[in-house]
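Amino Acid Chain and Its Fold in Token Form
===========================================
What this section holds: a protein sequence and its matching fold, both as plain text.
Structure line: whole-number tokens from a learned vocabulary of local backbone shapes, matched to residues.
Purpose: to set a sequence beside its fold so the mapping can be learned.
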Amino acid sequence: MSVPTITHPVPYYSQWESASWVPDFLSGTKDAADDPLWQKSGAGSPQEYAFWAPRMCGVACLRMALDFWRHPVPPSVPLVRELCEAGAYVREGNTVKGLIYQPFADHVQARWGLEARSAPDLSAEQLPEIIASGRLAMLSVHNTIRTPRAEPPSKGGHLVLAIGVSEEGVLLHNPSGLPDLSQEAATVSWARLDHFFAGRGVILGD
């Protein structure tokens, strides 16, 4: 497909407060509770922050979109609590179901007046038109997309924000991306995207 190059200047947010520590959090060499910036998350304790940080990819994507469209950006953990009340996350003990797209989209529309549409059948071919229209897309991908040459065991389960497109591929802000490699505006080729992308997500617009 012929794709014009379009990139929206979307600010980047990691799902951890210390984005430079992401490789250590992922490898387990550092615990999220030891994040020196945990209080910025608005959590009541390091333990509350450590529970939610690995699960906040969707929250990070929303915070990026809010900043892009010049809305006040809530701290991440209060935003998680808000989305739990809205039914977008369902916590049962130490397990969490979510992000659940429809209640998430309904809440985003009601709370901020943004366009938010659950897209259970979203194709990569639709992304150029979405981006060209000024919108953004949260995509469900496998988390190994942070190293695009990886061969993922499945598709979906992690949310990234599509902020641009080009002939080469889609540009992603990845809340659990690796510094200087796959965090900000990282290009994933159209061919490689198919290995990770589950064909669903949420479309956001102003």
Summary: The two ends are 27 Å apart (CA to CA). Residues 170 and 188 are 6 Å apart (CA to CA). The helical segments are 22-27, 46-52, 57-68, 76-85, 101-112, 127-132, 190-196. The beta strands are 6-7, 89-92, 95-98, 115-119, 136-141, 158-165, 169-173, 186-189, 197-205.
